[in-house]
């Protein structure tokens, strides 16, 4: 979804720490043929190295990749094209190592890169595609009847979940569960679902939201095992780790929002929840140890607001920092996002903040900031991907001038 970014005053965040390595000193290597028919990508390598197999590099993307989405494991970068294909790239230099072509056209359901099951899965229009991450080959596909399309995908514990519905969407959808290894259908259920809501799966359950309440189903049978109680409003579900949080809807046109609710994953009943601000919730991430970092902004203009951190385990608000709307993730115990676009001294950089200490942290818990890169500028609408596995790197995808940059985690 395209984000609106405008300059609105001076940034209030004081950035502490040193800039990362620029990773731009290497020569350009020969052009590599594009696997999806776009312009030929080139790769710029860098002599910079870190402990482990990941390296700093930049790589251009084909137009099909730039209109899709990218993810990563500890071993490689994977991009899904807007035609349903896949491109695998080396973690060492960004070069294309394998491709799985496809020729579909339509809305994308996103990308799941599931390292545990060695699968990457994407849905484009009415076709669900899966690639084998180990061999770089097509694993399986599923074709929907004409008039239906995939809208969301998820995966956990050897099962891929895919949500499909009539296109255009009518409010009723079907949740399909298939075996990740070979695509064997396991079950399907007709459900109520709200456009844009995530599929969350962990600990033997899969969770869906319809804009009012959350429903939990058994991963093996698809049977409903819990539903949000009456009176607990859930316009939007934020998930991460093993946590579920209901917030106000980011697409609401009103000036008031439902209170934030931390839900028990077993019963879906509300747990003690830190009090949130009166601003509009726009996007959020949750760490494995239960820190929710939520971007909240004015209802009329979400281009500037604050990242607010909440400790879900101990029911308290931790910290807040000024920001302009940007993508974010969690890596190595730190919150990772981009510096405000209207801060002239530090814009266009990746910044990491200790999840518990916040922007006032000191020593090893102090905020850290990368150098400025072309890919991290606000006008590129950058997306940040954390490979995980203690790689010490993040990957930034720049959409405007289609490219990737792997850089050391600040």
Kindly describe this structure:
With 410 residues, the chain is mainly beta. It contains one helix and 33 strands. The chain has one helix spanning 63-66, and strands at 43-49, 55-60, 69-72, 76-80, 86-90, 96-100, 108-114, 119-124, 127-132, 137-143, 148-156, 159-166, 172-179, 185-192, 200-202, 205-209, 214-218, 224-227, 236-240, 243-247, 261-263, 270-271, 280-286, 291-297, 304-311, 316-324, 329-331, 334-338, 350-354, 368-369, 383-385, 393-398, 403-408. A hairpin with a 5-residue loop joins strand 4 (76-80) and strand 5 (86-90). The longest helix is centred in the N-terminal third of the chain and has 4 residues, at 63-66. The model is unreliable at 1-51 (pLDDT under 50).
Rg of Cα set? 21 Å
User: In angstroms, what separates the terminal alpha carbons?
Assistant: 27 Å
- Uncertain segments are 1-51
Average residue pLDDT: 87
Total helix count? 1
Number of strands: 33
Q: Per the principal axes of the C-alpha atoms, what is the gross shape?
A: globular
Q: Which percent range describes the beta-strand content?
A: 35-45%
The chain-level structural class is: mainly beta
Give me the side-by-side strand order of the main sheet.
1-2-33-32-31
Q: What does the largest sheet look like?
A: 5 strands, antiparallel
Helix content: under 10%
């Amino acid at each position: 979804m395209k984000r609106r970014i405008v300059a609105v005053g001076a940034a209030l965040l004081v950035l502490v720490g040193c800039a990362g390595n620029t990773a731009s000193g290497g020569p350009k290597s020969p052009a590599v043929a594009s696997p999806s028919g776009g312009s030929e990508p080139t790769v710029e390598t860098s002599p910079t190295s870190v402990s482990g197999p990941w390296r700093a590099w930049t790589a251009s993307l084909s137009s099909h990749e730039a209109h899709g989405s990218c993810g990563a494991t500890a071993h490689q970068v994977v991009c899904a094209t807007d035609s349903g294909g896949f491109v695998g790239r080396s973690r060492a230099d960004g070069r294309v190592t394998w491709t799985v072509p496809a020729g579909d056209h339509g809305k994308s359901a996103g990308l799941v890169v599931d390292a545990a099951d060695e699968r990457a899965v994407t849905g484009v229009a009415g076709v669900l595609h899966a690639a084998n991450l180990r061999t770089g080959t097509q694993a399986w596909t599923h074709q929907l009847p004409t008039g239906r399309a995939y809208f969301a995908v998820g995966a956990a514990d050897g099962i891929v979940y895919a949500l499909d519905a009539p296109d255009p969407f009518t409010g009723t959808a079907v949740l399909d569960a298939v075996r990740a290894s070979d695509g064997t259908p396991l079950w399907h259920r007709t459900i109520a679902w709200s456009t844009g809501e995530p599929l969350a799966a962990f600990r033997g359950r899969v969770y869906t939201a319809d804009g009012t309440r959350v429903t939990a189903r058994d991963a093996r049978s698809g049977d409903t095992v819990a539903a949000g109680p009456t009176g607990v409003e859930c316009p939007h579900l934020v998930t991460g780790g093993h946590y579920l949080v209901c917030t106000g809807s980011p697409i609401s046109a009103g000036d008031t929002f439902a209170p934030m609710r931390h839900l028990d994953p077993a019963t879906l009943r509300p747990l003690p929840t830190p009090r949130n601000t009166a601003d509009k919730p726009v996007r959020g991430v949750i760490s494995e140890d239960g820190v929710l970092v939520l971007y909240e902004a004015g209802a009329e203009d979400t281009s500037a607001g604050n990242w607010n951190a909440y400790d879900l385990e101990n029911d308290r608000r931790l910290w807040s920092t000024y920001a302009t709307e940007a993508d974010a993730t969690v890596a190595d115990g730190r919150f990772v996002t981009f510096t405000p676009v209207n801060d002239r001294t530090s814009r266009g950089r990746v910044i990491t903040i200790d999840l518990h200490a916040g922007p006032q942290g000191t020593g090893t818990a102090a905020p850290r900031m990368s150098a400025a890169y072309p890919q991290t500028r606000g006008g590129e609408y950058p997306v940040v991907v954390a490979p995980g596995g203690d790689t010490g790197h993040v990957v930034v995808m720049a959409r405007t001038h289609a490219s990737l940059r792997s850089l050391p985690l600040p």
